[in-house]
Write a structure and sequence with these properties.
This protein has 474 residues and is an alpha/beta fold. The chain contains 20 helices and 18 strands. Bound molecules: adenosine-5'-diphosphate (ADP).
Length: 474
Amino acid sequence: MRVLFAASEAEPFASTGGLADVAGSLPSALCSKGHDVRVVIPLYSQINQEYRNSMQFICSFSVKLGWRYQYCGIFSAVYKNVTFYFIDNKYYFERQRIYGEYDDAERFAFFSKAILELMAHIDFFPDILHTNDWQTALAGIYLKQKYHVRPEYAKIKLVQTIHNIEYQGKYGFELFSDLFELDPPDYEIVEFNGDINLLKGSIVCSDRITTVSPRYADEIKLPEYSYSLDPILNRFYFKLCGILNGIDQNYYDPNSGQDIFAAYSANNTFGKLLNKKSFQFDFSLPERTEIPLIAVISRLVQPKGIDLIIYVIDELLKRDIQFVLLGSGNHAYEEYFHSLEYRHRDKVRCIIGYNKKLSKKIYAASDIFLMPSVSEPCGLSQMIAARYGSIPIVHETGGLFNSIKSYNKFTGEGNGFSFYACNAHDMKHVINEALDIFIYRKDEWKQLMYNAMTSDFSWNKSSEAYIELYHEIM
Ligand code: ADP
């Protein structure tokens, strides 16, 4: 099977979130199963020189966007056995940041068009074009509405993945023909509530729509979660399915000892105590391994459920616990956590920033990982935490629901704790229950750690699900 995976970011080249993790690991999982899967991303200025050195120039051509004719260079590099293509245009991709520019519509319209032109220039016409989020949605619309009449493109099937439905690519109709080069028959495809909505257009055009967890696939059919796209998803419910993301289990492996103080495994967790002690020492917290250490590693934004934590944290801190937070985002939240640390110097550390290596140290040092997201398409942090034996406490939503099963004291099953209603006191109740097990029922906690650390969060099962889905439409 030949697949072209089109994404606006991919690990390890350029990353702002979960999409990059998926684009960096799913294709290599598919390749290892014998398929020819290639990835295409923009050549951002943020991509390190180290990676640029391994790139090869393939060709260049010009891409037509309305009245514009823009240079498009193609570079390629092989990473983890996957061929990556990089779309080069300095005007569009040499910017301070990856998204959030005034002309994102034009930048990603160019990228989308370049993806289709690329196929002809490298003579790679895949069986499947797999687009991701709104930034590549237009590539799918072009494929089905424009390029399909050409024999080489006619058989290509389209899969669109929604990583987060909040971002839809909404623009005014002034861009309809001038920039997007769409024609009157395309109006009904892309129009939604009076605007152009690129994600909606791709949902209409695609052969299958996937999202990043089965639960989220159900949730986005409801107005509470859909950011108003629920009528469209209900209309095309037969195309929609949810496949849980995996994590790179080699990168996140406590047994490798990489980036943490001491290695440990599910069968021998002694090293975890050393990680906790070293962390307490480094951050000047009392060095007591018997104290439960609760961690939060998150973007500090409303959907991550930060308000629930704020609501009960002072009450929780009356118990003999330690609390560490690593995150950045909303300024008001950052200020709040600064003040929390100030008020509880002996128990709390709040590190404002983004630090991948430190995050691994915290996963390894902590006993409990708190992730009360209001909504969560998939979530990777809870899986990483479980892998490091930091027991996740999650709100039952999206991928949190699909990956974390609440501990059952009668059967010993489960790899974390969860609460049903998005309510701070329900969360506090579950945290207290977890703390009691940690303090008073040590054997049960050991079992829980074993269950969490041996949970299968690899790409193996999920990549099989994608292969099955591709086969269904071919
Ligand atoms: P989202 O993509 O919505 O931010 P996920 O749980 O899917 O949430 O992925 C978050 C990823 O980013 C995880 O790998 C997590 O460890 C990492 N992360 C989040 N905040 C930070 C931070 N401040 N420093 C380092 N890593 C972080």
